[in-house]
Amino acid sequence: MASIIGSGLPPFAQQDVLDNAGRLIDKHIQEDQSYVDLSELIRVQTHNQPTVSGLHDYDYPSLLEVGMGIDSLREVSSAKRVPLPPELVEQFGRMQCSSMMGLFPEIERAWLAIDSDIFVWRYEDGTDLAYFDGLNENILSVALVKPKKDIFQPHIRYLLCIATPVDFVLLGVSFAKTYDGVGSESGMGEMHLLPDPLFSIPTDNTYITSITGTDNGRIFMAGKDGCLYELVYQAQDGWFSRKCRKINHSTSNLSFLVPSFLNFSFSEDDPLVQISIDNSRNTLFARTEKGNIQVFDLGEDGKGMGRVASLSHQNITQSAYLIARTIDRSNYKTLVSISALTKAESSNIHLVAVTHSGVRLYFTTNPFGGSKSRPTMLTLVHVRLPPGFTANAVTQCPSKVNKCCYSKGVLMMVSSQNELNDLLWCVSNDSFPIQTQLMEAHTTLNIDGPTWAMAEVPWSSIINNDSGRTGRIEKADPPIVVQQHIEPCRRFIILSSQGSHIFQKLRPVEQLQQLLIDSQGPDSEEVKGFFRLHRVEQACATCLILACSSRRSAADPKVSDWARMAFFTYGGEPQYHYSASMATHGMQPSNIGAVYSSVPATPSTTVVYSPSSPYNTSMSQNLQTPHPGMQPAHMSTPAPGAYNQSYYQPSMMQPMGGPMQDVMFSGKHNGICIYLGRILRPFWDRPATTEFPCQTDQGLLYYFSSSFTSEEIIITLELVRDLSDFVDFNAQVDFGGSGESVASGFSSRMMGGRYSDAMMDDQTRKKLANEALKLEKISLQHVRELIHQVEEVLGLWKVLVDHQFHVLAACLTKDQQNQLRSMTFKSLVINGRELCGSLITCLISRYLDDNATIDAISSRLRDVCPNLYSTDDATCSKANELLQATKTNQNQLEKRRQLQEALRLFKDVNQPLQLPAVCNQLASVNFYEGIVDLCLTESNKLDPQNLALHFYRCCEPPEDQQGMQAFINRMECYKCITDTLGYLWSASTSHPQAPSIPKSPGPPQAPDPTRISSVQAEHFRNEVFQLSLKSDDELFHVALYDWLFLDNHLDKLLEIQTPFMEPYLKRKSGTHGDNVAALDMLWKYYEKIHNFPAAARILSRLADRPGGDVSLQQRIEYLSRAIMCAKSATSRISSAAEGEFLHELEEKMEVARLQLQVHRALCKIPHRSPMMKEALNRLDSCLIDITKLYEEFADRFDLSECKLAIVHCAGLYDAALIENLWQNIIDKEFDACSSADSQSRVTNISNRLVAIAQLYSDTERYFPLAFILKYLEQKSCELNFDPHWVYRAMLQIHVSPEKLLELYDRMFKSKDPYWQTIHRPLHLLIVLHGFMTHFSNNPTSLPTMERRRFSTSCLDCVSSYLVELQAISSTNSNVRNLVQQFKALQAKLERLQY
Fold it and tell me: Which of 35, 743, 1207, 1248 is most buried, judging by how many CB atoms fall within 10 Å of its CB?
């Protein structure tokens, strides 16, 4: 069907297609829900405003207006006549007192009571005759009722209730096979009456006229005394007791809850003759022989009892006369029957009574609009006259009605004609569904013999139709036209002395079938009239029921072909229609046929819904005008526009500058949508699952169960498949062909006056027709796709239900379960593809977990849902099965073959795999090499043109979206390999488990058998790693190296020797050296391959690289390694360039060390200003040249020691500057320890100065010893320090004793007035004495050759010092002591000469 989509329209995504079709189905389901309640059909607005109908032609419209006679559409037909069994005929000859007959339609049986014997047989064929002759009295009344639960044994399915003048007997009824319900062929077993009564109680001289049972097993009896009785029985000791009693609800003490004025019974002269029970509301209605009606409330739960109201026949007659004054009172003289209406029939009307003349009286037991909880009254609200009361009626009115049956809008009446014949009347509104007023058709049939009994055969739908009701508001069941495709034809049984006569109530589908058979094809006025009556799209939907039913039923193939021909012949074609002119010149609706409520137009991608009618007929014109004198309350007044059709509004077409146009789809298109919507209606908005609680060892758990039973799915799936086959088979048929359209006569009127068809030229008309046809074909294609999707989802759901759905749903993730919990069938079809896939995965996994082969289930899934479970899915499932088999296979060769075969199957899958899940499965069987192979193969499948590599080599331009997507796809494939490597790497590292407290007492738990050992993990890791390195996929190597890099496996990365390694690291590091870690790896890689020049340059670049991510210490280390590499390079390759580069590196190294010194000096400053912090950041973020280092850092922050180092490194000599720097250094050291005691200060200062001086002691220019010595002695003298610490510190610096003696001697002889100023003129002599004494005490501190020379110098100095001292006043004791000390020293030095 793809070819039918016009090239001028954009293609639709699958999701858009399903959304568009889903909106169509929503719209038609909503239209089917637009029917009104019975009270609205009979125009009763409130309970105190009664109405009348049946007086006008439109109440019983003539079908002559649509081209068919009154007999063309029969409402009922005779299906079968079965005579009485011959055995029963013989029994009539033995009758002595009385005989009576009746029906048990619940079990498809009829019964005959002759005197005290009762006979039961199957009325369908006269077989299975059963009898009971255990009574001694004549039988007065018989009924078949349901037993109460848990009272009798399970094989007792029903109770046969027999009343005689003396006692009341309950007999058990069982069947040879379990009885499943009417219509179930497997359940129609042989009937058995238990020979012994279950209960038998006396009647107390009460004549029982009628017996009726409720659904919950209660038994009510109508007494000739006018009282309502109940037979109450109960179980005893877990079985049943003999306690069985009869309660009189009309006069017993149980009626004390009822108001006193209601606590009465009718007299003996007015016996109760009929009981009708509404089991949906638990309400009981009783009719007396004279026509009085009583209402009893059975309670909300159906277990109570209370009389609510009653109406005498006189009151009923008077009320009916006041409502329909023109009707003779005699028509209400006798009530023949009452029928309780259930909630499924009406929410406001609760009872229908029929008189002997066929007049229907409608009653309610609650005020309209109330809560309608329990009945409170009985009020007549409507009188419906039978056919024949209209002015132009050609039909005689019913008379002498003696049997009646009313249910779900169908009235069956039997009127007496003579002693040998009766007349059967059937009145129904099935031919006029979804109307705004009650319109009915009728049929009469002559039947033989007087009628003894009449009943409808009950049936129960396999599909739950309650789901079609929206919201919490109770709503009656939809018209039969909505459900006729799934529900069986209604059947009625009439029993007479001649036998049983079975009738079928004909629905529109049977009526159409009969018309086609009678006409021997669709080409007849009657078939055309059917399309006019039911509207084109509704008739097309009915045609589809016949056209699609030949395969699944015994339907005549000819009828199916004729229905298909009628579908295409009268289905019409799409048209353009002008919305502006429609309001003025649009068609008025017919009062015959379906009239749907207006649905607001809602634009969508495909269809705009705008209510309208596709045709107009002369019949509608004739019926538009009400009959003269008709009251407004009785009128049928559909609102303008209260008719519907589907539209498409194309914005690109607006010829002639007229108003916007709509495409009105054909009846064929809408018929398909309507039929599909009706098939899916019970499912569409229904939750897909329900939850049920289950008590387990883990507590109360909730499991998911399917909301749809297997039987519901089978039936619905069959209907959908039939429709799918029809649409597929006729896909090439021109749905918009030139077949005859019932509505063709109205196309010009659709255009409206000014924009009429006559004003268009042929080219414009043809263009519009082609455009409309194209748009309809697109919409049909969308619907076709939805049908296929529904077919697959239903097929899958059936498979899931057959495989314990609650177990499969429990395997879903929490998110998926939450999604499933809130998902309706509609959302499952339209948006649930992913969830369906997850459920399929759970199903396949369940098979694999059970070690079962999946071939059968895989084949079944491929058959029922080939799109949800494709060939690739089946291939994957087979591969999973092979992997599962390897877990138990002990044959290593066979296991290897299975692994390779599974890998081959995975590689053969065309669609993209869920690689993480597949890789986990391969890893579970330790097939790690398969993971590498599969992932690399899958990456090539996803990118066969290698767009990702081009994208990568072009530096990943963002505008290349295609290349970017290919790159992402490949990386996702490679990630599975790296994730596997990561797992194996972790598992290969042995970690002793930490001790833990066991969860329960007993032996230690066994180790996990699925966990591989560290030795195995290391083996598999190396295997995967080696296989990975053998790949020639450059991008995979990039992904692998990235993973190693990010996972900090740098040593492993450096071991790799592939042609992709160097380009990767170069790209990783960037042309500007932005990636420090990558540059760090790159120089190590170069060093490893002995490319020392390249390594040295990378290291130099790292050291020079600005930024705070590399510390100053790290930069120095880089420079150090760079120097080593450069030296290695010069040793291998001798070149001037390399030598120059080495020299440059060494100079950088010296400056970097100075920078580090400055940095450390600044860090030692306790209080840092913002300026200082900024300086530290600068020092740590880049290498600074020596000039800036001095000016902007050392000098700026007065770092004298650093300035001295910088000056020294730069080779700059300025004696004054250097002396000033040393002075500042000494002053700072003295200030730094000013708070300590003298000895500690001396020690600290000495140690610090020694450390500094040792750096410069070899270069006299930067170590002014004379200045330093003098300054230190002055500071020491000022602070009164130990006079010996200075020369001792100098000796630690390795200053030679001769040099020290020379400097001290020169300092003394210079006669500096400073010493006199501070009053320490002898300080230097004391120091000199101590220095020389130190030598004399430690003569071995000097070599032998220098010792004599130095001792001689010392003697010379001592002599001169003694002369100086002797010249000073001898009265000073310090001088005398010092002289004595020098003399003693002189003697000691002289001894050293020898």
Answer: 743
